[in-house]
Amino acid sequence: MAIQPRTWVVFLLLVLLSSSWPIAEASHRVFPDLQSLEAEGGRAVDVDDSLRTGYHFQPPMHWINDPNGVMYYKGVYHLFYQYNPKGAVWGNIVWAHAVSTDLLNWLMLQPAIYPTAPFDVNGCWSGSATVLPDGTPAIMYTGIDADGRQVQNVAYPKDLSDPYLREWVKPDYNPVIAPGAGVNATAFRDPTTAWRGPDGLWRLVIGTKDNHRGLAVLYRSRDFRRWVPVRRPLHHGDTGMWECPDFYPVSSHGVLGDVKHVLKVSLDLTRFEYYTFGAYDHATETYVPDAVLADGSNGLRYDYGNFYASKTFLDPAKQRRILWGWANESDSTADDVRKGWAGVQAIPRKIWLAANGKQLMQWPVAEVESLRGNHVNITDRLVKGGDYFEVLGLTTPAQADVEVSFAAMDLDKAEPFDPAWRGADAQTVCTARGADVKGGVGPFGLWVLASDELKERTAVFFRVFKDGDDGKHVVLMCNDPSRSSYADHLYKPSFAGFIDVDIVKTGGKIPLRTLIDHSMLESFGGHGRMSILSRVYPTKAVGDKARLYVFNHGESDIKVTHLNAYDMRSAKISTDINQPIR
Questions:
Q1: Where is the Glycosyl hydrolase family 32 N-terminal domain positioned along the sequence (predicted)?
Q2: What pTM does this model have?
Q3: If you write DSSP's letter for every residue of 276-315 in order, what string do you get?
């Protein structure tokens, strides 16, 4: 990401003046010996930008995690996020704040919320924003109080005439929700955006657990100040702690039409997210997922890769719901400290209900296309089994947007779907049938962030099986980073999902879009039916040394019916309040 020349030292010092609170621990590992201001002599220490993203959101340095309080106010998008101003590891968490008019180019502001009072003296953790009927934004967040309890607090803007909402005030009557009798006070966090029902009562959901049972608990209020719990949880599952819940209406038209309610939870034990959707009744305060949907850790996921702690918001300017998510690093803590940063926010995605009502669909927001530059087009190119070719013409394939449509020429060559896989998840299948394992129809797809000699490469591919349920073909989509880097101490899992597509009806065709951004890969298959995010750390395929290829390692020939690849310009991030955002 293109950083303006001014440093962040003033920004950091303002935070650190009030940062004497003790370290609080959640599921993140704490590194007390690595918590230090990374500035010397009035200037920031060097940061290794070689694998830093160009058009994804990340601050100039240090650790970030959950997106918080995302909203739209007076023509400006607001992104708050968990941030450590002292280092590239988790700890000292504050609500950092950035604003944008296009979701791409950002102005970094001073932290909005940081520990100042007994109700949040030990940390300001995740939460959400709600715009009240009079237009006043309210932030509800989890504070760690002086007794180590997780409590819910509210904050309001100091000056509503400021579209950037730079200063926030915490009322003295906080906390507005404290853990009651029988509630696990060390696992009671991450309030959702609130909504008001037909009865005029406000409602919100908080994540918690009872032993191994994850819970989404509902609270109600008449005045946004005094909240009471509903007797029964909104939903629960035997999956451990439910954190970062989200609950919102959605339809196949984005925000209109036949509405279902989505409940998403982040599973602290697995670090994956799952969602259901179904019917919500305000009168009885009941939520019933659609009967055909799997629940818990076997349920649907927004993203089948490195994507966590997500948060959605309704964009009134364009009548769409937008999804944000956090991508953690997959390198070592020592690597993060060396490079001076850790954590990236995924590209914001539009999210809606599929027309067939079976799942949610998602796609990068349209604004991303404004960063497209130099363009390469390939049409109707045949790729025989075992062949590959380089996509030439891009200035830097390490920072690109690639849309491609493949057509499998002979589906009869698809290998049988092993009956032993019927109870397994897609990641298990991808691990057994990775990009280097020859198949019938596939693996075929892209080698991205590839070195000249192809010893470093990450495969984004499809593989088609036959004899699935009801005799249909099974389409597997995988991100396989097993050959992505020569570096040691990397976590390189294959991520995968099964795409709900009848490839016979499509004539063997299946589309893929991959956003490539140095150490970040976001892939969308089947027009948004599947998304997979991976973090990779090449040592050779860096910057202008990276290459892009199309490959086919199956018996069936594959045709690239069309491929459009674009160089992507860097987004702009500024700390200068006098600089226009765009």
A1: 56-364
A2: 0.92
A3: EEEEEETTTTEEEE-TTS--GGGSB-S-SSS-EEEEEEEE
Assess if residue 137 is contained within a domain.
Answer: yes
Question: What pLDDT is recorded for position 578?
Answer: 61
Residues 342 and 484 grouped into a single domain: no
Q: What average pLDDT does range 104-124 have in this prediction?
A: 97
124-169 tens-digit pLDDT: 999 999 999 999 999 999 999 999 999 999 999 999 999 999 999 9
The answer to whether residue 473 is domain-embedded is yes
Residue owning tokens 């621990």: 25
Is position 102 annotated as part of the catalytic site?
Answer: no
Distance of CA 213 to the CA centre of its chain: 24
Q: Please, which residues have CB within 8 angstroms of residue 103's CB and are 6 or more apart in sequence? A: 77, 322, 348, 365, 367
Give a yes or no: residue 414 inside a domain. Answer: yes
How is the chain split among helix, strand and coil, in percent rounded to 5? 10, 45, 45
Domain finish residue from 364, 390, 422: 364
State the greatest distance between any 2 C-alpha atoms of the chain, in Å, as a whole number.
69
Two tokens, residue 229: 């719990």
Across the chain, what does the average pLDDT equal? 91
Asked if residue 577 lies in contact with residue 4, where contact means CB atoms within 8 angstroms, the answer is: no
Range of the domain at 458: 374-568
Gap between the Cα atoms of 263 and 560, Å rounded: 38
Residue 274 near residue 300, CB atoms below 8 Å: yes
- Position 198 scores a pLDDT of 96
- Tell me which of 66, 145, 331, 517 is the catalytic residue: 66
